[in-house]
Amino acid sequence: MTTDSRNWLMLALLAAGGWLVYLLAPVITPFAISAALAYLGDPLVDRLEKFSIKRWKVGRTLAVSIVFVLMLSLLTIVLLIIIPMLVEQIRLLIHLFPRWIEWFSSTALPWAAGKLGFELKDFNPAEFTQVLKDYWREISGAAFRVVDYISRGGMAMAALLTNLILIPVVTFYLLRDWDPLIRAIHDLLPRNSEAEISKTAKEVDDVLGAFFRGQLMVMLALGLIYSVGMSLVGIDLAILIGMGAGLLSIVPYLGTIVGVLVASGAAIFQFQDVFHLVMVLLVFGAGQAAESMYLTPKLVGDRIGLHPVAVIFAVLAGGQLFGFLGILLALPVAAALNVLVRRMLLKYRQSDLYNHSSNGDI
To answer: Is residue 148 pLDDT above 80, yes or no?
Structure first.
């Protein structure tokens, strides 16, 4: 088979594989979630497996069981405590938002206009407030209809229950057999390119590990810092704003900027004094100090290699093409492409095409 024929065959196989993933996305999704959980838990399993007391060593099955119980406990906490708290915060936001709109149009906007020295000609606060309230009523009503449909739909509930059973089972077996699976894949690699593929896979693993086990922990830690801090200040929507700012911190400074603006507005509306505004700023300042001095250097370092804009684009593109499965696969694919592009650039800079000097000839 010629090189061109081989390339076309590989392209056809990639296209067929993408189409098959698109068709089987609902079936593949729980397995992809299980693989992601196993990938996150495998380093801890490996560490526990090496732990020993005198002559007694923790076996692979026991180490997997310990990590599995820890992951299941965290999932239970999220499902039973954190999610209901966030749902309650969203309900509170839906209740408060019309009052925010009215206060903004009738008080804050005229005050800002007076301070800045411009006039609001033909501006009717009542009409502006009513328009925003109508839009908000449509948005919140649509959101509640979607949630109600999902909660009442028999097929949706059946799929949810199936995944709740399937994902833990598959995760346990993948955790137990993760190292043999990696060795089996390694043994299938062509011997003449095994070293190059293994090196590339190691770089991809470093990038993904830094992101999943590093950046996501930073986001969670910042969300907790912001949520606890604003709860102590007394902000009604502390958990919703804090966790939202933590998640948005995937883009440097975006989470801080959005969090400060929203939390400051909430503090001014709720308390209407300078003290609580200053306290909110101190909370976000403490979070930024913790991130720059400890969280990012300790948990992420300089290995992540994925630009925040590339992460956002990959997640949005994956979601558009393959739905929730695409969101799960976006970061591994982006990490692999990032490593491949860096290697191609390195080879290009080492090539004669890049280093060749024409000496004035064209």
So the answer is: no
User: Residue 53, SS3?
Assistant: strand
Q: Are residues 212 and 92 in the same domain?
A: no
Same structural domain for residues 207 and 71?
A: no
The residue with greater pLDDT, 360 or 181, is 181
Half-sphere exposure of 224 (CA within 13 A, CB side): 10
Radius of gyration (C-alpha) of the chain in whole angstroms: 26
Instruction: List, for residues 33-69, the tens digit of each pLDDT value.
Output: 888 888 888 888 888 888 777 777 778 888 889 999 9
CB contact set of 213 (below 8 Å; sequence gap of 6+): 40, 43, 299
Same domain, 42 and 168: yes
Name the residue among 306, 213, 125 with its Cα closest to residue 315: 306
Residues 35 and 144 in one domain: yes
pLDDT at 285 exceeding the cut of 50: yes
Longest dimension (CA), the chain: 84
Same domain as 179, residue 298: no
Q: Which one-letter amino acid corresponds to residue 122?
A: D
Residue 53: φ, ψ to 5°: -120, 110
Q: What is the mean pLDDT of residues 282-299?
A: 86
- Asked if residues 1 and 173 have their Cβ atoms less than 8 Å apart, the reply is no
Residue from 188, 173, 206 nearest 61 by CA: 173
Question: Which whole number is the average pLDDT over 328-354?
Answer: 80
- Find, among 190, 184, 87, the residue nearest to 143 by Cα: 87
* 301: Cβ contacts below 8 Å, ≥ 6 apart: 210, 214
Stretch 311-316: mean pLDDT, rounded? 79
The predicted structure's pLDDT at residue 362 = 47
Note the helical H segments in 104-215: 109-116, 125-152, 154-176, 178-187, 194-210
